[in-house]
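Table S2 (text version). Query chain:
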Amino acid sequence: MRYFYKNRSNDFYSSQVIDNPLVWIVVTFSLFVVTAWLQLNGVSINGLTLEINILSGCVFVGLLSYQLYQAKRHLEKFSRIVDYLLNYSLVEALDTAILNSRSAAAMTNKSYRVLPKIWLWYEKNSSALECHIKIQKLAGSYESDLDHVAELVSSTVGDHFEVISKSIDKSGSWFEITCGLVNENLRFIPKTIADFKVKPHEIKLMNNLTIPMNKLPHMAIFGSTGSRKTTVLLTILAEVINNFDESGEACCYFVDGKGEFKPLKTFYPVDHFATEPNEVITLLRKLLVISKRREKIINNEVKKRGVMGLTACDIGLSPIYVFIDEYASVKARFSKPKELETLMLQSLMTFRSFGIYILYSSQSPSTQVLSNQMRSQFSTYLLLSSANEDTQRMVFDQVATTGTVPIGSGYYLEKTAEMSTPQRFEVPDTHKYKLNTLTVLREIYLKGRKTSGTRLRRRKIQIK
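Corresponding structure-token output:
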């Protein structure tokens, strides 16, 4: 166990040096080395140099032996001690996570907090690397605390590991957590700008997941702060800004509740952004006018071809994407949000057949923010990172998982007969090859605009 003490001037907790056995091992070893050197050089301090040397050596050997015994006892193999020492930064990160957690055990009104001992090692199992973590079960902890501990581990081990099993050992004294590698084969990791190239009316989110927006219009993305919703949205943006509508304008519009997309205004048409109530109303009405124009074009094509049920994709109209980020923040700006809700519902129901797709992002799936009638208009739902059962039911109408989900992962559900239950989702990784910068988005935009100019001259169908 480790003890963290409260600072008198604030609630910050820190450990004291004297509580760290490593400090005493270093002190006694240093004292042994110094007294040995003095003895070899015939220097005596009141005739006690030899006695101090022997005593410090014995204490050093005793402390070191006890620590090695503890390591062998809990790690089971001496070879795992190297893993433990090399990954001690992860142990410290787990200490911090437990210290900051608002569990009943950690937040008692005391001048100190007791943190459990943590052991960890890596091991290959069936050619897959696993991280094994043992966390001491303190007095006052219960079996129900296992889920809380697993969540802390899941949020700490990073993007590449996830909790695959959790249990309490036979003695009832340790929480045992096993973390396996996240399935990186699913994660979409673009290496160059060319990897963002997709077909019109399609969005690629994973290596095995490409969503045909013409068949599954509108997408809702839910996740708490830090769950990487913005990463998903920017990946989608990078894939679609090569396309332009028939008037040559950029095919993306933004209802920006938090200002996440504000930096794009340095190269993107400013009239495609809306934040304030009057701007949002104006933009939604503009898009409804565009949808009416597209409806006329599609109806003319239906008459010309004699085929019912044609969509914007069928006749070659470019897609238009409407990014709505943090709708709750947008809605809160309205003194009377009724007009906004009416326009939103009308947009969700009208845009579907005309190649205008809404990408909705929010922290909360609460019906107080988005009504059930609006929610039912989405064809694809994403829920990122861990969420309780109530949140999962609000998003999927069922529970996706009772375990923990690491940051950078989640679940998705499409409204199709083939997908009856939510499936695992991995957030695209645009950071690895540094394709997440504003410079990259600007380059993609300018390249797409140039390509669009050539494509536009060849079009037979134009909106006027």
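Notes on Table S2: Residues 13-74 form one domain. The longest helix spans residues 277-305.
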